[in-house]
Structure formats: C-alpha cells, structure tokens
Structure to design on (372 residues):
C-alpha cells in the first residue's frame, strides 16, 4: 500500500464560498491525490431570522439555493474531473445545531441532493453509497459542535479532527478555535468521544471557503490504499485506514500485531509497530492507550555527515486582496534536486463576513496554468 493525501471537505463559489469550481479542481490537481468539493446544502434547524441573525440566515439560504439550482452541472463537473491522477468524490454539507455539522462523501456520481433532518436520514436517502463526516466537532454542543450522544459509527467511520477552524483533539491541543463560531468546548473533543468508547478514525481537511482544496497548513486527510482510484481510496476510508496531518505530508502508520489502523482486534498480547517520516525533524512521538500517554519518544537526530538536505522556501503576499503571479526558478549547482513538495496555500477564508469590502474577489485563488 501507499499513502495518499487529499482534502475531503472544502468550499468554493458553488454555494456561499468564493472562486469557481473549475479553478478549485485545477488547484486540487496541482498538488493533491484526491478531493471532494463540498456544497453547503441545508441547515434544517437554522436559527429564526431576526435583526441579529439576518446576515447569517440570508447568506446561508442564498448559498443553499445556488447549489439546488446547479446540482446536476456541479456533479457532472466533479465526475469529469475524476481522471489523470486526481480522484474526486461527490458530496455536500448539512449544518445542524442539534447533531453538529456533517459533510457527505460519496464515491457515486449519482448522489442525490435530498433534504432531511438528520445525518442518518441523509445517508439513508441520498440514493448512493455515502458516509457523513462530523467536522469542527469542538464547537459548543447545540450550536454546530458534535453531539456525541447521537454519533453513529456505522455512518461515520471517520471524523474530521482538524481544519481551518482549529484542532479538536483535546481541550489543550495546539491550534485553538479562533473563528467567529465560538470557542473550543472541552465536552466536544475527540478525547471525550474516545472516552465514551466511540469508534472512529481521524482525518483532517481544510474547510477552505475560497476554492483552494488542500491549502497548506489547514489540514489534509491521509489514506493508506492499494492504489490511487476511487474504489481503493473509498474502501480504505470505510475501513478507517486514515489519519490527519495539519501541514506537512507526514508519512506514518501504526500497527498492533498485524492489524492496521482502523481494525478492531481482540488479543491479550500487543506488539505495537509504528513508522513516521516527516519533512522536518520529528520532535516527539507519543503513544496513547485509553486516553493516557504510555510511551513518549523524543526525536533522535542522526549525527552522520549528510550530503542530502531539505530546504524550505516560502513566498507570500500578505493580506492583499488581489493575487500576485510569482515568476520563480530554483536551480542547484554541483548537485541535484531529488524531489520537491508543494506547500501551496490559498487566500485564507472561512466564510463570508459582515465587514464590507473584506470578502475576496472571485479570482483571488486563481491558479496559473503554467505552475509546475
Ligand atoms: Zn464546511
């Protein structure tokens, strides 16, 4: 098997995000193995519209309507993009105050856009194989954070534990929630779900809102699969052979005896094997059992003289509203470049804001064709 990296949850202008679907797919093809482009579809228990909630209610309803009107065409474009090294999945998102937000992911181009009250009803009635992935789970219970009481592992084999919203692992994780939907609530973390014996695997995805799937630093899903095809990646997702990374494409796996991540086994004697390979020096590896850290390895660095080096090059354009076309070239003398990893980051947008003039223009994340 090999490990593949992608983004199962991100948005663009097909609803209330920004940027075109076409550009989002082009971005994904530039640097990801797989992607799903998620349309905001419904919020069955949306707050009543009044003076305070008018802005929120209005932009959501307009976005939902846009998806409804263009669903056939959107699904077709995503289906057609499933080619030449990029695997695409279909999907859309349900906001829910009661159950927490979920996005559907499906390997079927026949996925139907249906409107229901619960994630279970959506999965049951969408006319295709699909799972419902809970995301930004650590918001307050009752306002779009996860509801561990109703969590159902049969429709949610994976949970999104990190995105632009922040890290949901536990109350003190790095990357706190700083978006305007509220703080991280310690009752709604991954740690609490595991304590309650809920069974699921981890992924990260960006939840980017301006058409830049896989934006560096906002989270990626890693999947161990036999090959880079829809079928193989989908089977791996169902088996829970996944993990989450925040930024760099850390390669890692963990086995207990011969069982892979995501498997359930019964044994009295456990041999744990793990392998981790990062782009930077590894500071620490921790092994947890029943919520307790039972082993901690600090990074060991080779003292041998190396002739191979990793170089990180950063370029950016701050908070400008218009994109800038970089024209750069990297070359090396008396040596050769063995390989390179893109760390491409889109204009950082989570959702529309009420501040006039602060929303990005349509083409803010336009991907230049010549990028190689
Ligand atoms: Zn979302």
């Amino acid at each position: 098997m090999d490990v593949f990296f992608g983004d199962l949850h991100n948005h663009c202008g097909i609803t209330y995000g920004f940027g075109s679907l076409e550009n989002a797919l082009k971005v994904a093809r530039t640097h990801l193995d797989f992607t799903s482009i998620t349309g905001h579809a419904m919020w069955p228990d949306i707050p009543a519209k009044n003076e305070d909630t008018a802005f929120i209610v209005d932009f959501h309803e307009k976005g939902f309507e846009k998806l409804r009107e263009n669903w056939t065409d959107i699904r077709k474009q995503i289906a057609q993009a499933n080619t030449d090294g990029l695997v695409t999945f279909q999907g859309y998102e349900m906001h829910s105050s009661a159950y927490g937000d979920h996005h559907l992911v499906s390997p079927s181009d026949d996925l139907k856009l249906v409107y229901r009250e619960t994630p279970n009803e959506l999965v049951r009635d969408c006319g295709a194989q699909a799972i419902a992935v809970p995301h930004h789970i650590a918001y307050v219970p009752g306002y779009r954070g996860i509801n561990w009481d109703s969590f159902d592992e049969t429709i949610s084999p994976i949970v999104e534990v990190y995105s632009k919203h922040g890290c949901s692992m536990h109350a003190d994780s790095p990357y706190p929630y700083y978006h305007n939907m509220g703080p991280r609530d310690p009752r709604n973390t991954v740690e609490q779900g595991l304590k309650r014996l809920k069974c699921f695997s981890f992924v990260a995805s960006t939840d980017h809102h301006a058409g830049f799937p896989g934006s560096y630093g906002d989270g990626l899903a890693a999947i161990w699969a036999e090959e880079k095809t829809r079928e193989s990646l989908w089977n791996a997702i169902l088996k829970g052979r996944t993990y989450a990374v925040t930024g760099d494409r850390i390669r890692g796996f963990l086995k207990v005896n011969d069982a892979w991540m995501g498997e359930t086994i019964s044994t009295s004697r456990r041999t744990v094997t793990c392998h981790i390979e990062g782009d930077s020096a590894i500071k620490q590896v921790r092994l947890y059992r029943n919520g307790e850290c039972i082993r901690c390895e600090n990074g060991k660095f080779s003292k041998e003289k190396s002739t191979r080096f990793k170089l990180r090059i950063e370029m950016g354009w701050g908070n400008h509203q218009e994109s800038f076309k970089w024209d750069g070239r990297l070359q090396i003398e008396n040596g050769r470049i063995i390989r390179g990893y893109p760390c491409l980051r889109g204009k950082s947008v989570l959702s529309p804001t009420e501040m006039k003039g602060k929303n990005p223009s349509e083409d803010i994340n336009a991907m230049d064709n010549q990028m190689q």
